[in-house]
Design brief:
single chain, alpha+beta, 10 helices
C-alpha cells in the first residue's frame, strides 16, 4: 500500500541522516538567496535543491510560471473498494475502453481493491460519470470515497530543472502517457538526481548538477516519447474498440502490459508485439489517415 511504501522511504531517509520536516508547509522559495521559508521555524538554506513535490509542484510553478500544461495533463479518479482476492473471477483488470484516451483498472490488494480510471483531461470532461459507469460494470466500490489527482501525461520537461534546482518524478512530468504510471520514474529520477547532486557538490560546482541530471534522464524521456508514438494506435477512435477487445482476450498482451508496468519490458518490444496483433486494424487506420478520412 502506498502509505506503507512512503513510510518505508521516510524511515530509510531518516536512518541515512535526513532531517524530518514532515508537516511543515512551505510558504516561499527564494532561488536567488537559496532559501526556503516554512510556515513555522527558521528558513532552510540549500546549495542544491531536489524538488519531488508532485504534479502540482510549487517549485516548478515558481520556476516556470505553471506546474504543467492544461493541454497535455491527464486526470484520474480512484477508490479503495472491498477486498477481492485475485482469482479467475476477480483478476487484475485493465479496461482500455473505460475512458477516452485512457483506461480503467482494478488491482486486488491484501485488504482492499484499488479501482480507478484515468485519461487525458481535455477528452474526459465528465470523468465522474465514467467512473460511476465503470463501478457499475464491476459491481463494487460504489459507496467508497473517491480520490482525484492530475497526471502529467507524457509531457516531460526537456530540461528537468533550472540553475541549481532539479525536478524529479511528477514534478518533472516523468509519467507514462499510456499507463499513467509514475512511481517507477519517480524512484529512478530521484536516484539520478541524487547522484548528479553528489558529483556536483564533490566538485564544488552546484551548476554542474543539472546538465548531469538532464543527460542521465534522457532514457526516461526517450521511453516516454516512444509511448507517445504508440498512444494513437491504442487510443484512436478507430482503433480503441478493436484494441480493447484484443487486450481483453489476449493473455500475452496482459502479461506484457504488467511487465511494462514493472519495468521488465520497454515500449519498443511492446510496440512490435502490438503491431503484430493489430495488422489489419493498423492498415485500415493508416489508409484512412493517408486519405484524410
Amino acid at each position: 500500500m502506498r502509505w506503507d511504501f512512503d513510510h518505508h522511504l521516510l524511515k530509510q531517509a531518516l536512518a541515512a541522516g535526513a532531517a524530518d520536516f514532515t508537516g511543515h508547509r512551505i510558504e516561499a522559495i527564494d532561488f536567488k538567496a537559496n532559501t526556503i521559508d516554512l510556515a513555522e521555524g527558521e528558513p532552510l538554506t540549500y546549495r542544491l535543491l531536489i524538488a519531488a513535490d508532485g504534479v502540482q509542484s510549487p517549485t516548478a510553478k515558481a520556476l516556470f510560471g505553471k506546474p504543467f500544461s492544461q493541454d497535455t495533463i491527464g486526470f484520474a479518479l480512484e477508490v479503495e473498494g472491498p477486498s477481492q482476492a485475485p482469482t479467475e473471477a476477480t483478476p487484475i483488470r485493465i479496461d482500455f475502453a473505460a475512458a477516452d484516451w485512457g483506461y480503467g483498472w482494478s488491482f486486488p490488494k491484501k485488504s482492499s481493491t484499488t479501482i480507478g480510471l484515468g485519461g487525458l483531461h481535455a477528452k474526459n470532461p465528465d470523468m465522474k460519470l465514467h467512473l460511476a459507469t465503470y463501478l457499475d460494470k464491476l459491481g463494487t466500490g460504489k459507496t467508497a470515497k473517491v480520490k482525484g489527482h492530475f497526471l502529467p501525461f507524457g509531457a516531460p520537461r526537456p530540461i528537468p530543472g533550472k540553475g541549481n534546482v532539479l525536478l524529479a518524478g511528477d514534478a518533472a512530468g516523468l509519467v507514462d502517457p499510456i499507463t499513467g504510471e509514475g512511481i517507477g520514474y519517480a524512484i529512478h529520477s530521484g536516484a539520478l538526481a541524487a547522484e548528479a547532486a553528489k558529483i556536483a557538490l564533490d566538485q564544488g560546482d552546484t551548476r554542474r548538477a543539472l546538465p548531469l541530471y538532464t543527460s542521465a534522464t534522457k532514457p526516461i524521456r526517450r521511453s516516454i516519447a516512444q509511448a507517445r508514438l504508440l498512444r494513437p494506435l491504442i487510443f484512436s477512435a478507430r482503433l480503441q474498440p478493436f484494441f480493447a477487445r484484443t487486450f481483453a482476450t489476449s493473455t500475452t498482451l496482459k502479461r506484457d502490459y504488467m511487465h511494462l508496468l514493472s519495468g521488465e519490458m520497454e515500449y519498443p518490444a511492446l510496440l512490435r508485439r502490438t503491431v503484430l496483433r493489430l495488422p489489419r486494424a493498423a492498415l485500415r487506420y493508416l489508409s484512412a489517415a493517408a486519405s484524410g478520412n
